[in-house]
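Consider the following assembly input.
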Amino acid sequence: MNTLPNRLILQKYLRHNVHFPHIWCPGCGNGIFLGALLRAIERTGYHRDQIVLVGGIGCIGRATSYVDFNTVHTAHGRALPFATGIKAANPALKVIAIMGDGDAVAIGGNHLIHACRRNIDVTALVVNNFNYGMTGGQMSPTTPEGARTPTSPGGSIEEPFHIADLAACAGASFSARATTFHVREMESLIFKALSRDGFSMVEVISSCPAHYGANNGAKTPVEMMRWQKEYSVPVDKAAALSPEERKKMIITGIIAEREVPGWTEKYRATLDGKREK
Amino acid sequence: MEGPQAVLLQGNEAVARGALYAGMSFFAGYPITPSTEIAELLSGLLPEEGGVFIQMEDEIASLGACLGASLAGAKAMTATSGPGFSLMQELIGFGSGAEIPVVIVDVMRLGPSTGVPTSPSQGDVMQARWGTHGDHPIIALTADSVAECFEMTVRAFNFSELYRVPVILLIDEIIGHLREKVTLPAAGELAVKNRAAPEMPPEWYEPYAGASNGVPPMSALGGGYRHNVTGLLHDKMGLPTSDPEVIRASTDRLFDKMRRGFGDICLTEEYLCDDAETILISYGSPARSAREAVDALRAEGMKAGLLKLKTLWPFPRAALERFAGKAQRMVVCEMNRGQVYRETLRVGRGRWEVGKVLAPYGELFTPEKIARAVRGGGK
């Protein structure tokens, strides 16, 4: 259903005349993600008036104000509570929450697991660049063990979260992982997530050459992309890896998918039940 | 339809029923004593009316969901007590800055921290005004009876919708749990207000340009008036800015829209104040004790009166100033260590003596205690 050329899709949805230039650094993966998101939205056929894009605070949170949908740029970590209220109040809207790794699994971690458990019909897109880019590259809950950042100068001693797996464990109806290198696969997974009821999530592994890369031996965008390419393994092939090998790799594809009714459908059923009484 | 019937209701129940009367269609909350009955009642009543009840994972999420629902066009409310109210402060600021109508009920209990969950307090007065960071407008209302819980909840929604501002309803545990016979207003008896919607073509819509009253018309998400909502300081299109001149215009408007409404918003009630030399100032359950104390003092020949505050923020300065040069003394009766007392000193600027009778330890406020203190000078 992708009728418009890619170039025109960007023109169609960007608030290019009112809110540019953007704040993202050269080599940042956010633009690649945003392009894929806009193409996936175009493929769904939703009218832009039906789409609500909810963002948190952080580099990727700014994406909300760059695009011409109903956009809500919330407080740090709180995109999912807002998205939950919006969807529950008006189930006709397609609600998409865009978060970074700190936003989604540090300050907003409690909201994330409960949105998964509740299976509220929201698509969460978590752009994971392994650090707090906006504030200068500090350690985040996804920073790999051993990685150096301004707040882990000797290398992180903590185990990172694997966001898509966390969402799968917490009950999301759809959970997937993609990278900004595998851009067509990312677009396809976002499209699948948008096409579902219940809570759907795509974790997008992204590049932050300005901070994370600079602190960890990958100063250029190309080096970061090469790392994404070399360390990615599709989920079916990852099954053969040892636990130690899996820790080093980015496992891409659909992590979990289950056919269960979303929150809004179940809530509507309880309303119908009350009316029949 | 049957006429109005007297019912036995608890304050918290009256809040829930007042919210439904005002047109609330969304409630998100997290259980906390002494506010829990509000959520319990609404979990049954709201779905019956086609509305949404959702129990969230904490109070931050509860207010976040309410703000989202309000942006989607619903009248939304949450209810909590001190510890939960503390957690909500961040998003109260968001609601103030992004001008999102929402009602937050805080059934106050003794603090700080977990405090005494079942003991009454009025310790959240200053937190309601200044709990969230930055300069911001806010409205906070109170109630001193079950009937007033109903009335002030309706007013809270009306102010919230008309001024596009979070409204906090501060009731103390005594009023929240008090059961009284009340006659609920019939449909249409109390005014119910709704936010103004944009009428211009979508391409002309400036979401944060104030109308003639300073309040921008508000479009529900999905209503065809696509725009950006943000907690960043923003221009009239809702887009982020750090330009001090743009910020001056947008921030000044937030305060101006409230200032224009002071006459509507600042609600007080006077009892025997016209010739009073000593005026008790009180709100919530202590106001009932203060009223009895006034009767006792009048019986002894003292010219005492009661100024009951129904609105705490914006502080009803004009209602106090009316007595400058007439009353010599104001005595504030409240269940904290003097939060409205200090405000009364500030507003008085030496034009009247200010005394206080306080009950900050979770104890009941007896009329005798107030009368005794006023007789003795009330300091």
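The longest strand of chain B covers residues 102-110. Ask yourself how this observation constrains the way the partners meet.
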